[in-house]
Design brief:
With 310 residues, the chain is mostly helical. It has a domain of 97 residues. The protein is built from 15 helices and no strands. α2 runs parallel beside α4, α6 runs parallel beside α8 and α10 runs parallel beside α12.
Length: 310
């Protein structure tokens, strides 16, 4: 966490200097860096504000390369549950980038579109998009490759292709570790946990979720911390440890609400409602309804969250 806090402090100082100097070009770059750092810290609303400001600064100086700001903004919108906004900013850029541009930028924007399409239930389309993105970077050692493999794994998981999902999860984790990119490593361990849970391997799912939680807490990745706690809530429920599940779910819920991770909040509410229902707690129904309201408000179709009742 100290590194992220230090990065945020240094970027804030650099931004103040460039703004005082009137250098809009470097100011725009500074807002991108600050937005990225805020995303890793779990300050998603701040991240969106900074990245939107970077795009406005680029427009003011006539700078045409918005790709770094846009690709990160797409990911932040996805985590905030602003799915339609994410597609609105990314689709035109993806189409334009097909005609040229840096391949990592193209791959990352296409990956962000695929992540959003998974949430919207367009699983086959998302898988095609993610595989296209991966083809652009598969011969690199960059962390981008691991992020895209995580998306491929998520699409396969939604399609119930669990062997393919597990293979992509394992490749993502190996790639993230090779690139020494901790945030993507935490995301990859978390993805592996989700696939193990779908396969009914609850012990392995719990161990991987605990690893993701440890990485998240060590490095200050609040969104991943909340997601890992949500998975642990589910594994505790599967072991009939309902009191533990409720405690973990409530902790996860507080983090999701703090970060603004709306889809994480909704999934946690669903997990909480299951454990509350098994304890015959009257709060189960209202908690479940809160989850349904969030899913509906962000545009997730009903068929995408009906499985979360099980």
């Amino acid at each position: 966490m100290a590194r992220l806090d230090s990065a945020h402090e240094h970027l804030t100082t650099a931004l103040r200097i460039t703004r005082d100097a009137g250098n809009l070009n470097f100011e725009a770059l500074g807002w991108v860096g600050l937005g990225w750092t805020c995303r890793d810290q779990g300050r998603l609303r701040d991240a969106a504000d900074h990245l939107e400001l970077a795009i406005r600064r680029n427009e003011e100086i006539g700078w045409s390369d918005d790709n770094p700001a846009l690709q990160n903004l797409g990911w932040v919108y996805w985590e905030l549950g602003r799915l339609a906004d994410g597609l609105d900013v990314l689709r035109p850029q993806v189409a334009a980038a097909e005609r040229g541009g840096y391949r990592d930028d193209r791959a990352m924007m296409l990956d962000a579109v695929a992540k959003i399409n998974i949430e919207l239930g367009h699983h086959e389309e998302a898988l095609i998009q993610a595989e296209r993105a991966f083809a652009m970077v598969k011969d690199t050692r960059r962390w981008t490759k691991a992020s895209i493999l995580n998306t491929i794994a998520a699409a396969h998981r939604k399609l119930a292709h669990f062997d393919e999902s597990l293979r992509a999860d394992e490749m993502a984790l190996a790639s993230a570790r090779e690139a020494r990119f901790r945030r993507t490593e935490a995301d990859s361990v978390l993805g592996l946990s989700l696939t193990q849970k779908e396969l009914g391997r609850h012990d392995q799912a719990r161990r991987h979720a605990e690893q993701a939680l440890s990485l998240a807490r060590e490095h200050g990745f609040r969104v991943v911390e909340g997601q890992a706690l949500t998975v642990l809530c589910g594994t505790a429920e599967s072991e009939a440890a309902y009191a533990t599940a409720v405690t973990l779910g409530q902790e996860a819920l507080a983090i999701h609400r703090e970060t603004g991770h709306r889809l994480g909040e909704a999934r946690t509410l669903m997990a909480l409602s299951r454990s509350l229902q098994k304890r015959k707690d009257a709060a189960a129904g209202p908690v479940r309804q809160q989850a349904l309201d969030i899913f509906s408000s962000v545009g997730v179709p009903a068929e995408e969250y009906k499985d979360l009742d099980r």
